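User: Okay, second chain of the day. Same drill as before: sequence in, structure tokens out.
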Amino acid sequence: MKKILLLLVLFATIRFPVFANSKINVIKVYDGDSILAQIDDNIFRIRLIDIDCFEGTASSRAKWQAKKYKLSLDEIVQGGNIAGQILKEKLKNKEVFFEFKGIDKYNRALGILYADNKNINSEMLKTNYCKTFK
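Assistant: Same drill. Structure tokens below.
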């Protein structure tokens, strides 16, 4: 078990050469909980860990969220688009730092974003469009 964990950590370090609180360049905000970022010559997707924002399109996941949160599909999609705009505003013209926590099954880096000395993951949870995800 320890060997597997060590290999996963080694893989994550090689695949995502990111260190705790590394300054990143935000290239694109996909939605309220995922972005495209760059450190040096490395470009990768980041998923904000422990949060789940509403979907911005009428996908099967959006339908699942509508059922789970007892909202209409339109409310989920509208909220998802608003969450993306909120994240863009929170990161716009800011120094953004990333604390790497791991990788997910889609090979996205998982972690916490910081801007203006604020935990952006926590800030996004204060909106009505993101929920805690564990």
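Residues 73-91 form the longest helix (19 residues).

User: Thanks, on to the next one.
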